[in-house]
Amino acid sequence: MREPGSRRGRGQAATLRVCVTCRWKALRSVDDEAVRPGRRLFDLVRDEAPPERKGRVQEIVCLTHCMNACNAVAMQRGKTPLLMTRMAPDRETARALLAMLDRFDESETGEVPEDRVPGAIPLARPLVPPGVSRAGRRP
Predict the structure, then answer these.
(1) Do the domain assignments include residue 9?
(2) What are residue 55's phi and psi, to 5 degrees?
(3) Which of 9, 84, 92, 95 is the most exposed place for a label (fewest CB within 10 A)?
C-alpha cells in the first residue's frame, strides 16, 4: 500500500477542496453570519492537517451545493472527484475529511467504499455520476 499523500498520475498528490462560501438553509441572507460554516470547516481542516499536508487542503468558492452545507471535494488527476456534503463545521468532521483524503488517494479510481466513509461525512459520492463523461455525454 502506498503512503498517504504519495504522488501518482502526473506527479500530483490528491487535494481536498473545501467550499468556503457554504451556508445553512435557515439563513435568510448572505450577511446573517459573520463567518460562514464552510469557512469555519476549511479553517478547522487546515488546523488539523500536519504541516506537510496543509498544501493539499485548499479553499474553493462554491461547489453549487449551497443548501447542503458544508461541502468538500477530493480531487486527483485521472480519478473521478469525490464530493462530500451535508457536513458540520467541527473538528470531528475536519479529521474525517483528512482521513477521506487518504482513502481517496489510496483508491485507484477515487471511489471509497461506503463502509470506509466516516460517520461525520453523511454523504460521499462521485462528483460526476458513473457512466457520464465530464463533458456530460455518455461514453
Answers:
(1) no
(2) -70, -15
(3) 9
pLDDT digits (tens, 9 = 90+) for 51-76: 999 999 999 888 766 667 899 999 99
Q: Say if CB 99 and CB 106 are below 8 A apart.
A: no
The tally of domains found in the chain comes to 1
**Long-range contact set of residues 21-24: C-beta below 8 Å, sequence gap at least 24:** 21/61, 21/62, 21/66, 22/63, 22/65, 22/66, 22/69, 22/70, 22/71, 23/66, 23/69, 24/69
Please tell me whether residue 50 adopts helix, strand or coil conformation: coil
Task: Give the Cα separation of 76 and 82 in Å (integer).
Answer: 10
User: pLDDT-derived band of residue 25, with 50, 70 and 90 as boundaries?
Assistant: low
pTM: 0.80
